[in-house]
Amino acid sequence: MIFRTLAATALFALATAPAALADKYRDRDVPIAAVESLDVERYLGLWYEIARFPNWFEKGCAGVTAEYALREDGQISVVNTCRDGGLDGEVKQSEGVARVEAPGELSVTFVPWLPLPFVRGDYWVLDVTEGYDVAVVGNPKGSTGWILARTPQISDAQLAAAKSVLAGAGYDTSKLFYPQQPGN
Length: 184
Prior knowledge:
The structure is a single chain. This protein is of the alpha+beta class. It has a single domain, classed as Lipocalin. 20% of the residues lie in helices and 34% in strands. Strands 1-2-3-4-5-6-7-8 form an eight-stranded antiparallel barrel. The two termini are 28 Å apart. It comes from Pseudoruegeria aquimaris. Involved in the storage or transport of lipids necessary for membrane maintenance under stressful conditions. Displays a binding preference for lysophospholipids.
């Protein structure tokens, strides 16, 4: 419940933040584009957070995962899980709802009971490997970004490729944070 409230507050803060705060990780003069096609069915399931740009709503989170599932109404359920302070920390979850806005472009809310546009955050899939085992996610504002994988660790080559996608979209990859995952 606390994680859900924090995530909802974070999305609200991000949506209403001044432009100066919203682009701290990405040069917005550099074009950004989502993948031209995203097989949502293949994207569903469990993803491990390999790297993220720091944000206060995930502060102290380790062992972070995101799980996506198709809902009966055609939208996507989102369950983010975090272990507070380390892999043996208290489990916190945040539940949200995503909808596809365009190919590779989703919007997510963690307060679905509040149907206002400013509580939805952009979630753009910038790249996904052919096997749907590594994904790179960002948003046009550059306020958030993640490298996700189907396993808790990825190879150095996979990480370099994902960071290259972020850099190509104007992100400063030197600011990435690598949360602790099982096995590292």
